Amino acid sequence: MSVATKTPEEIQKMRVAGKLASEVLDYIAPFVKPGVSTGELDRLCHDYMVNVQGTIPAPLNYAPPGYAPYPKSICTSVNHQVCHGVPGEKALKKGDIVNLDITVIKDGYHGDTSRMFVVGGDASILAKRLCQVTLECLWIGISQVKPGARLGDIGHAIQKHAEGNGFSVVREFCGHGIGSKFHEDPQVLHYGKPNTGITLTPGMTFTIEPMINAGKAAISELPDGWTIVTKDRSLSAQWEHTILVTETGVEVLTVSEGCPPPPAVAQGMVQAGAA
Ligand code: MF3
Ligand code: CO
Ligand code: CO
């Protein structure tokens, strides 16, 4: 597999797009409250992207082979929804956990990031622990990134942390190369064996976006053709960053004031250049 590396000019555009994507999450955070619908969150984000940022919401009408065009501007995955949840008019309630996944295009380049939100500020102990462990999985994955490391190192570290906490890793969806295209090579699996897969080199840009289930790993697709749910209807969480492989380690591109810092478990593990 050939994985393109980005030029310094492309990397600068990716920094801009990444920051803008993260800033959409900063903007929407205060609106994620009991009573709001995911459709309303979608409309607010759409208007902010288009009218305030001058960005293009990449999901809107996105149609990979075999899929109908995605109908909304963001993905909203609630509770047992794993990913690609389609916003609708049902209200969120206290104790729900919801992933908001934002991808913007600015100047031809993509920034892709997602966070978990706990609606009403509190949820079950299990739901909160799942969100936290999944954030740790993301950052433990990020901490593996440096030139010479291999993709399997990332997947293995994430899998070990998720399963060590009694959770499971979704297999059917993965992180991805990103740049002028939304989804490029390589595929970044969130499970695997150390010392396997392609070797990372400076200038590669890709996402890490583990989907971690409280129950079994199996998933199914809803009749809308997009929304993915856990087969056993257990809770699922996901966090996502877009990253750059640097000469010395890793730079997280999807950073802004409101994005949570690396959790303690990954602090000190992350190589130079990270946020
Ligand atoms: N943002 C998702 C990802 O992280 C992809 C969403 S595709 C969509 O790769 F069409 F559902 F928006
Ligand atoms: Co992504
Ligand atoms: Co995404």
Overall average residue pLDDT: 97
As for the CATH topology, it is Creatine Amidinohydrolase
Q: Name the helix and strand elements from N-terminus to C-terminus, one letter apiece.
A: HHEEEEEHHEEEEEEEEEE
Main sheet characteristics: 4 strands, antiparallel
Tally of structural domains: 1
CATH class: Alpha Beta
CATH-defined superfamily? Creatinase/methionine aminopeptidase superfamily
The count of strands amounts to: 15
Through-space gap between termini = 29 Å
Query: Ligands in the structure?
Result: 2-amino-4-trifluoromethylsulfanyl-butyric acid, cobalt (II) ion
Instruction: Assign a percent range to the helix content.
Output: 25-40%
- In terms of per-residue confidence, which ranges show pLDDT below 50 for 5 or more consecutive residues? none
The helix tally amounts to 4
CATH architecture: Alpha-Beta Complex
Going by helix content, strand content and strand pairing, the class is alpha+beta
Concise synopsis of the structure shown:
The chain has helices at residues 8-28, 38-53, 125-143, 151-164, and strands spanning 56-57, 75-78, 81-83, 97-106, 109-118, 168-169, 175-177, 184-188, 205-208, 211-213, 219-221, 228-230, 236-238, 241-245, 250-252.
List keywords for this structure.
275 residues, alpha+beta, Creatine Amidinohydrolase, three-stranded antiparallel sheet, 4 helices, 25% helix, binds 2-amino-4-trifluoromethylsulfanyl-butyric acid, binds cobalt (II) ion
Word description of this protein:
It is a single chain. α1 crosses α2 and α3 (125-143) runs antiparallel to α4 (151-164). The chain has one domain (8-252): Creatinase/methionine aminopeptidase superfamily (Creatine Amidinohydrolase, Alpha-Beta Complex), CATH 3.90.230. Helices cover 25% and strands 23% of the residues. A hairpin with a 6-residue loop joins β7 (175-177) and β8. The protein has 275 residues and is an alpha+beta fold. The strands form 5 sheets. Strands 1, 2, 4 and 5 form a 4-stranded antiparallel sheet that branches.
